[in-house]
Amino acid sequence: MHTVDVVVIGAGFAGLTASRELSNAGYEVLTLEARDRIGGRTWTDYRLGHDLELGANWVHWVQPHVWAEMTRYSRGIERSPRAEEAYWHGADGKPRQGTLEEFMALIDEGQQLVIDDVREAMPRGAEPTVGRIEELDHLSIQDRFDRLGLASEAKAANESVWVGHVNAPLSEVGLSSALRWVAATGGHWQLMHEASATYRVAGGLKAFTAAIASEITGEIRLNSRVASVAQSGTGADAHAVVTLESGEQIRAKRVVSTLPVNAIGEIAFEPELPLAWRRQHAERVASQGTKVWIRVGGHVSRFFAYANQNDPISVLKAEFYCADERGNYTILVGFGPDHSRVDVDDIASLQAAVDRCRPGLAVEEATAHDWMADPLSQTTWMTHRPHQLTRDLTELQATQGMLHFATTDNANLWGGFIDGAIESGLREARRIIDSLPRPQRRSGS
Description:
Among the domains are: 2-41 and 204-285 and 382-435, FAD/NAD(P)-binding domain, CATH 3.50.50; 104-189, Guanine Nucleotide Dissociation Inhibitor, domain 1 (Orthogonal Bundle), CATH 1.10.405. The longest helix has 18 residues, at 418-435. The chain has helices at residues 13-24, 64-72, 100-114, 118-121, 133-136, 141-146, 152-166, 175-184, 189-197, 204-213, 275-283, 347-357, 388-397, 418-435, and strands at residues 2-9, 29-32, 44-47, 50-53, 58-59, 77-79, 85-89, 95-98, 199-201, 219-221, 226-232, 239-244, 249-257, 268-270, 290-297, 303-306, 315-324, 327-336, 363-368, 403-405. The radius of gyration is 22 Å and the shape is globular. It is of the alpha/beta class and 445 residues long. The protein starts with a strand and ends in a 10-residue tail after the last helix. The protein contains 14 helices and 20 strands. It comes from Leucobacter denitrificans. Residues 13-433 form the Amine oxidase domain.
């Protein structure tokens, strides 16, 4: 049986960060990735004639962990196109066109009212369960909107904005998800909007994860799906045995799981997982939507558009301007609350969904990855249901014997973002470094 100091399960940002920190500290680390690539729920792939981010996409300098890594690896940023036009649904439920300034004026009151108590609810963004949030954690975002008394047009526009943020029906998402991200930007909703969907990593996230991986001295093994993790022994003999689906077994002094809550049931754990993990896995987190890339004919005006929160695509914007032998075209990125309602092979239904957001475009083709149907994720980006944050976060962060949990799902500051994944990887690596004696390497080895 092969023996290492630490096995890290998963080579997304959380796993790569933990593996780098641990290998740099002198531990023998084996990183096991079930996919045929690194990156986890980030995936840069060449489709529709352009490199596209099928998963996570945007970063910002108010996200401290990701920005430190951006600085470390000299990664630059590119701005997504600034909209010249805005589209939203009027009081009659039909799309209407206006300026960016008109749309921002329409949503300003509602966006502020949704998070108006953020400084009392979460006075310290890095500690999301501190403050009055426990008193509010039974509420959904929809509950909050329904109590604001907004005019129908303003309410619909505000709801669609938040569907874009949380990737799920608002009735299923805890108000805590809205408050924690705004708390992370000092209580300013405008800055939170910018931080979540404005600046891309130059060169793509594939190059970013490759840069982190290049500093890991241990093996990163792809196509290596873990079947079980069993802990045994006590004291100096305490260890875990990681069994792959191939039957191979690896003995380790520590194991770091980076699986998201929804997918962690794909591995058998002995002893069984802590209650918070089992409970949230059974409940599922709220996110259940889709991200879709759509090619439309011609170079269209820079725009963003919001349909109704119940439409298949609730948010749509122009992202790339391209040309090939077929002529000029624009690549749009869209988001919807229900992954099952968007079929990239059904151009007619996609055309209808686009028309609900921004009429007058000709859909040519589309692509996406269904993260909900992917057994290794079973979710997009983490958003909590009511009660889940304050009830479970502390336990989700706790170690269980030799087993550590590092995922954006259990981050403090930017849970659900790349920043949260990096935070969790750093946290668990430090816990291991502080608790596991460093191996004595022979001189010259």
